[in-house]
Amino acid sequence: MSIKSTIVIQKEENWYVATSIESGVASQGKTIDESIANLKEALELYYEDNVPETQAEPVFITTLEVAV
Q1: 48 pairs with which residues across the strands?
Q2: What does pTM read for this prediction?
Q3: Percent of the chain with pLDDT over 90
């Protein structure tokens, strides 16, 4: 079984923090790739005990520019 997750990556000082929108699970790393790899491991551990009955529909994220 595989589960897709929408993630957000934010830079916080010297770390990148990756967070799964669907589950709220987060992890960090010194690089974007490291934060994603660490989040993947955290999600695998999370879903060992919390397997969802159905897969949530994907979340779509975009940017919006507003003139000020």
Answers
A1: none
A2: 0.80
A3: 60
